Amino acid sequence: MLKKPPETVAAVDLGSNSFHMIVCSLANGNLQTLDRLKEMVRLASGLDKKNYLDSSTQERALECLERFGQRIRNFPPESVRVVGTSTLRQAKNSQQFLDKAEKALNHPIHIISGIEEARLIYQGVAHSLGSNANLRLVMDIGGGSTEYIIGSGDTPRVKESTPMGCVLVSNAFFKDGKLSKDAFTQATLFAAQQLEPIQKQFQRKNWDEAIGASGSLKAIDKVLEAKNWSNNGITMEGLEHLVAHLTQCNHVNELNLPELDPERLPVFPGGVAIVYATFKSLGIEQMTVSDGALREGLIQDLLGRLYDHDIRSATVQALADRYHIDKEHAARVKQTVGYILEQLGEDFCGPNHEDVVQFLNWAADLHEIGQDIAHSQYHKHSAYIIENGDFAGFSRQDQILLSTVVKSHRRKFPRSLFNALPFPWNIDAPTLTLILRLSVLLHRNRQEHDKPDFKISLTKSKIRLQFPDDWLAQAPLTHADLIQEADYLKSAGFKLEFS
For FRET with 86, which of 298, 322, 330, 435 sits at 20 to 30 Å CA-CA? Predict the structure, then answer.
């Protein structure tokens, strides 16, 4: 835990329809909302047929982030979490946009998977509603994806993310705002098709109450109440009235619905189609709407990191159990990693030091999980699982970094993999990997005996190890391993010396 947690924390959600920011004061672990900002950017509308984000949409998004940045630019890095969702997962040129967006905010942006998005949404809803024993179905419609979660209390049990959102469906079936009964039927059929693989799992019999958590669901709820089509959240009866009205109009400008923000008009029909299909497919009769959503979940996750309850560490331990790692061996490797880091000092990797320690410990825990698939080339299997799994709490960038370090911890040292990492990891990750490689090598015999009290110095391209007198002579296998390691590292531009 930080010696002194920040007084103010913030979360930013770069959604496919809207960008949201929440700023909260933090005192003794208690939160109070200070500020909320929301701008409808419609990022998903900027994706072309080849999944490239066009320049005009990028410009619109960056102008929004410049405004957000004025509020949080000078916040300490540990007090802010910024995530990107569906559109930034899909965009082939997302890194180009992220480089500019991070400068606007002065904070790193992490891309999260649909499943991680679902987990965070549930956390936000659970926090806003308080804990109870009911099984909840939570639904959140974004611009490019819709998430469904079943959980109880603070714990999500089943999580799914479907590739449909209010922007995507509106652009595909209600182009330029044109409406028709046939278009709505096709949009509803498309949504039902996306739900088909998860329909059985999320059916009405599997939960006690349904909760909506998004701008689209809030907008529908307000319209139904204002029109007296429902007085108890979103109901199937109310939706039938809304669909009948919508399909009698020829254009969104004719809808004339009270309490509907004109900014939401272009994406409103797509949201209605998704909700209508969901109610029919899952057997929902009534749904209440929550204020909590992804950004509130991000704040809760951030608090966990500040107060030593980082969900990522729990995820790593669950994976270690699942893939039957040798925990005693992992502990020995971690001990040696810590021994090396202690010698290198707290200034090692500068402001990145705490993250370095954390990622190295996770890498030590997970470097052998691939052995549960095959012993040969196990480091590659380990890396594949880490990069492609659904890891609670981890962003895409987190998983790629961890995967790269683990993949490179033995045999060849692939410098090109590190060059593809975002700053500062493209600079720091090779050093992390060297530390893990040496720690694993020194425990290759997997014996219980204590490590030697060696000394280490590490510069940009040179590693120097000094062992106690005669220790290498009494450990000929380790000596041979070090000679081979020196050859591997020489090919990558490093010089390993030992005596």
Answer: 322
For residue 353, give the amino acid letter.
H
Helix (H, G, I), strand (E, B) or coil at 152: strand
- The C-alpha atoms of residue 33 and residue 37 are separated, in whole angstroms, by 11
Between CA 444 and CA 208 the distance in angstroms is 52
pLDDT at residue 378 above 80? yes
Give, in order, the Cα–Cα distances in Å from 68 to each of 23, 71, 104, 106, 278.
11, 6, 8, 10, 34
**C-beta of residue 4 within 8 angstroms of C-beta of residue 74:** no
The predicted model scores a pTM of 0.92
Contact 450, 335 (CB under 8 A): no
Query: Alpha-carbon dihedral of residues 255, 261, 262, 264, nearest 10 degrees?
Result: -90
In 130-254, alpha helices (H): 166-173, 181-195, 215-226, 236-247
Instruction: Return the pLDDT at 197.
Output: 97
Tokens of 230: 């429902």
- CA angle 490/494/495 to nearest 5° reads 80
Give CA separation, 29 vs 4, 26, 134, in Å.
Answer: 11, 6, 26
Listed in sequence order, the residues at least 6 apart from 421 whose beta carbon sits closer than 8 Å to its beta carbon are: 400, 401, 404, 429
